[in-house]
Every structure is written in structure tokens, then in C-alpha cells.
User: What shape does this take?
Amino acid sequence: MAKKEEKNKNKKQSDKAPIGQDIGYVKPREISKEMEESYIDYAMSVIVSRALPDVRDGLKPVHRRILYAMLEEGLYHNAKFRKSANVVGSVLGRYHPHSDQAVYDSLVRMAQDFSLRYLLVKGQGNFGSVDGDPSASMRYTEAKMTALAGQMLVDIRKETVDFMDNYDGSRKEPVVLPALPPQLLLNGSIGIAVGMATNIPPHNLSEVCDAAIHMLDHPHAKTEDLFKFIKGPDFPTAGIIYDQKGIICAYAQGRGPILVRGKADIEETKQGNWRIVITEIPYQVQKSSLVTQIAKLINEKKIKGVRDARDESDRDGMRIVIELKKESFPQKILNYLYKSTDLQRKFHLNMIALVDGIQPKTLSLPEVLSYYLEHRKNVIARRTKYELKKAKEREHILEGLAKCLSKIDQVIQTIKNADDREDAKQKLKKKFKLTDIQAEAILETKLAALAKLERKKIENELQQIRLQIKELQGILKSKQKIQTVLRKELKKLKEDFGDERRTKVYVRKVDEILVEDLVAEEETLITLTNNGYIKRMSPTVYKTQHRGGKGIIGMKTRDEDFVEHFSVASTLDNILFFTDSGKVFSVPAYELPQGNRTANGKALVNFLEITPNDKILAILPMGKQDKDKKIEHLVMATRGGIIKKTKLKDFDNIRKSGLIAIRLKKEDSLCSVKKTSGKGEIMLITRKAQSIRFKEKDIRPMQRNAAGNKGIRLKKDDEVIGMEIIEKADEKDYLLIISENGYGKKTKVGNYRKQSRGGTGIKTAKITKRTGDLVRAKILKGQEDLIIMSKKGQVIRTTAKSISSLGRATQGVRIMNLSKEDKVISLIKLEDNG
Assistant: This one.
């Protein structure tokens, strides 16, 4: 037992290094504890010594050391330039034992007018560009301080700030600069520490000075109060910022996004074309990168209607020109640039700075100004103490001089009778009751000072120095006087260095750029084939032809495929797809693939979650034109003669998987869907040429999943092939019918009497083997353009007035010549031509 205790005792003693012999000694230690402490030490070193600025002078250590080294080298704003390598060498050798490239990069940024709002270094040579070009090597460039940088160091030799040992203890360096300019806000700061980052934008000096003066008079001012002076960031690259309310909120919390846009104008050229000219870009965006982004969008055809894009920037300013084609939509293209490039980006404000030199803290705008003002008050107080001390020392000497010069003859005699300088000093002290300093000053006085006028100057100086002492003592005793001094300094700073704001601030909030904002609103034709291939194209691809023409190829279809649906819409419309099973799907028109006249299109399953059993029977565009026409309902008709009316708002939010539009009987299917105002009349037309006309009021609105009511009573082999809405019962309107073999006619609506819903209707055409059954019907004014398409893809565009007006019981005339295997499948009415 005793041996075990002795062994444990020896083990504990072995854990401690012998006194004076700790070098090379290995001490057992928990690895988790060692890593935790080492990581914390590393993190604090990065936070305090490298990454974050001090809230008092707004500088990181490397920037502070660069300016102080330049001060020691005498590189004032009015001095000669000196090689940047010289400055970097001084900083490395004296204060900052890190990478020379890191020091030079910091110096370069202080000289870049696109990085800093107010330059601290005046450079000569290549210091990089807004294109992202690197600066020349430090051996080629030259630098000195700017006048504003001099204000950062003013009074530093008057004991205004504390000094500390440099890295090797051979020199002293300032802990913080006196910093008359509120540097943290003027030029901002960017830094990534361990576990935190700072991102502070630059601001306008005049505005910050006004806000600081207001803060002096109103110490409890809020962010909203300060925004009467500070409007927001003021970037060196100008630009435009939006949503001042959001900006104020970000500054109140110390963090938040700020939307920044470049300045872009739409100009008209002499040739009548349009062009977009970009003259300002967001802060921290490389111009070359922005130009590359634009070029990529053009090459990938994501932006259409661009003829040329080039960079015309020169020493006079920035200018990126995007030449547009005549048929393009400039605002849509500009919106796309905002959404897809760095022409618009968010600056994420994160005002983290060191408080008391060691504590990182997220600060609001009032807090930043409060810490800055406290620092400046402290600097003024310390400077005043230093000046008071020097004034009292001078007063003490002047008092001795004045005392002795009034008895100059005795003074001279005393000095003449002395054995040496020390003896003369002691005799002067004893005879005239002087201190060591005063006696030394008498012995240093030149003979010229004994003249009568010179003696008068000393008396005047003593009088002035006593007034100065009184004034300095008054400042130290009164906080209000210190604030008065600070107020004067800020006003002078604004007077000497203030300028106009560069970045424009818009109070309004920029709405999020939606896809609709990027799409040009124009008429488009939508085709859907029997096998489910869809596309959209411009109506201008079809030329108007005379009645009876053969038409042109509308689109190439795959084997045994044919065009089944043909609809006209706006690119901004929402397209509803109704299936014969009574379901409805939705997709924006602009999402459908755009193709030329002969393109195949793309499978509809890429856009809708339809099953193989879902057969599209109707394509219905929904857009702002419906509100203009006061469209309030959808009316649905089935092939079995059932009709149903449902409110349009029930179809506002359609899931990708679709919704039930109507509940159908087992043997029935949906046939037609139309938009109505609820005040018109309805006509149902059947395959065997029966028709019925009745008032829409005869149908009461039902829910989406309702079944509907009887619209027309059908014969055994008949079915409904079309439904038309007569919004305004004009008896001069026409009902156009088209048969499957290309025959058609128009008949005045007045020839169709009104009946009650649910009847058998009346004859609307004479059908034969030659004409075939009816396939489509349309209500016309008589001036419209019509597009007729066949199963094989033949398309003819003609006018309604070119079609004969005949009676109800006639078979009509040939409108389109078709091959024996081909049949008419679709009829579209375009905008009124009259």
C-alpha cells in the first residue's frame, strides 16, 4: 500500500516540469481541451488582429499600420510620391510581420476609387480597375497619403491615443487612431473572421457629419431620426438603392439586405431602334464579369432581340451598350438583365465592429455614431490636457523670463560674476528665486531678446498663454464645451471634404421581378396534337388566303399524329387545359415552347401532370382581358348534352396534379368550355347539325364537382361538337359552321329562335356524304380573320367576310381543299379585322 501511494506521488510530481527546466518538457493534456483553447485563441486573434475594424477609427490593424508608417515616412498629401515597396517594407519591418502581398493589397484598395468612397491613399501607377484587373507590382507603383487620411492622424503626437509595443517590442504603435473623419461609415469595411463577418457599406461624408452633429445634440436619437440626414449607403460606383423603409429597418438592427441596381437607360437610336446603355453598376461588381454574364445570356438565347453588346467604357466613364433589334421589347430585356445578372444585386448589411478594441458586436447606426463621438470626445479631452500641460510649461518659463528681464542688469552681473554655467544657474535660482527650468531658460536666452521690443513680446506672449490656459481649463471642466469643439471640427470636416451624394435612393420598394416581367406580351397561337405535342408561335406566320385555298403546312407531325387543338392567346395568359374526363390543368403560356411554323413542339407531359388516360379536349386562355370584359363564369358542355356553369374564381389556384372541373356520367365526356359574363346566350351545336339557343340565366351556377343540367336532348347517334356564347344578343351576328370535309357557311344568328334549355333544337345545316359531319362552329361579327387546321397539319388563314352567308338548312361552300384521308380538326377566330 505504501509503495502504491509513493508511486502515485511520483507520478503527480512528474506531471510538473522541474523549475527552470520546462523547455522541451512534454506535459500530458486532454486533446479536446487543448483544441478548444487553441481554437479560441486563434479565433480571437483573427477577430481582433485582422478581420474586424475598430468602431472608433473604422480601421483594421493593417490599414492603421499603413497610415502610421506613412506618417513616419513623411508621406503627407503635399509630399512627393514614394515607391509602394518602400511603404510595404516599412510596415512589415516595423509593425505588421505578415505577408507583403497582404499589406500591398490593403494599400492598393485604399487607393481604388471604385472600392473606397473617400480615398486614404493617393496612388500613382496602375492600381487595378473596376474590370477586376490586378494592380501593378509594388515596385512599379508609388503612393502617399490623401488629405483626408491626414485627418485620421491629426494630433496623434499630442497623447490623444494609447500606444502599445509592436510585435518585437522595438517600437510603439497606436492602439487606435484619433480619426477625426468617421471612417467606419465613410468607407465601410469588409471582413470575414471566425464565426462572423462584417459588411459595412460606404456613406456620404456630408450626410454622416450632419447626422453626427444631430447625435451630439440628441444623444438618444433613433435610426429614423438619423435618416433625415443619412439617406442610406453612398457607393463609389453610384447606382440606385430602393425601399428606404427596408433600409432603415436594416440599419436599426445592424443587419439586413439592401437592393442595389446599376443605372441603365433605354435610348432610341437615329435609325429608330432601341438600345440599353449602362453607365453605373452595383458596388463590388466587376464590369468585365457583368459584360460576360450579358454575353452568355445572349449566346444561350435566353435574351432575344439583342443585335450587339459592347463595352464602350473609357477614362471619361463607364458605358456598356446593348443594341436591340427593332421588334424587341427593351423594358422586358432590361428586366431580364436585372433578374439574371449582377446589374441588380443585394448588399447584405452586417455592421459588426470591435467595441473597446476587443469585443465584436453588431451595431445599429445610432450605436456606431455614439461610439465614434465618445472616441472623439476622449481625443479632444486628451489633446486639451496635453495642450494645457504644454501651455503651463511655457507659462512657467515666460514667468521666469519676465521676472529676470525686468532686472536685466542684475541678471547680467550675476552671470558675469559666476565661475561657470552651473554656478551661474545656482546663483540665479538663489537671487531671483527661480526654478531649474526657469534658470536654464534665462541662460539660453539670446542677447537679442534683451532689446526693449523683444521684452515686450515676451510679456504679450505670457498674457496670451494665460488666456489660453484659462480657455483650455474651461474646456476640460465642461462637457458642453468639448461638444462645441467637436461640432466645429465636424462642420469644418464637411466644409473641406464634403461632396454630393452619388447613389440615388428611391423610397419605393422594388417589386420582385417575376417571370411575367421578363416576357414580352404579344399574341401567340397554341397548337396541341392528338399525341400530346404542344408549341406556340406568332400568328404572322400565316398569310391570309382566299376561300377554297389549299393552305400551307402548319406544322410537321409525327407518323399518324395530327393537330387537334388550336387556340389564340397572349404570352402572359394562364392556359387552362380541360380533359374529356372533366379535369382541368394550368400552365402559363410563356412556359410553352416557342417554335416556327413547321416545328414539332414538345410533349405536354413536360408541363402538366397528366396521365395517359387524360385526353385534352379544350384549351382556354385566361388573362387580364377577362377582367376587362367582366368575365365571371366558365360554362362547360358535354358530348351527351349536359351543361354546367361555375364561377371563374373557383379556378384561380389549380394544382399541378389538376382539379375536377365537372362530375361526368360514366359514358359521357367533356366537349367544350367557354368563358362568360353570365348575361349572354348559349348555343349548342351537334355533329348531326342540330342546334339550340337559350338564355344563360337558365343555368344556375354550381360548384366545381357538380354534374350540371340537360342542355339539349340528343338523337341516338348524335353528340354535341360545340358550344358558343352570344354575350350581346345581336341578331346580325353569324354562326359559322365547318364540316369535316372542309365545307362551311355562315348564317345570321337571327335565324335561330330562342328556345328553352333541354329541347331538341332546330336544324343548322344540311349534311351529306360530300360535306361530312359538322366538326366546329363559331359565332362571328363578320370581319374576323379565321385559321382552319386539318388533322394532317394543313392550315389556311382566311377572312369571315369571304365565306358565303346562307340559310340554316344549306350545306355550305368549300372553304378548304383536303385530301381524301384528311379532315378539318380546328377553327380559330383571330382579332377583329374591321
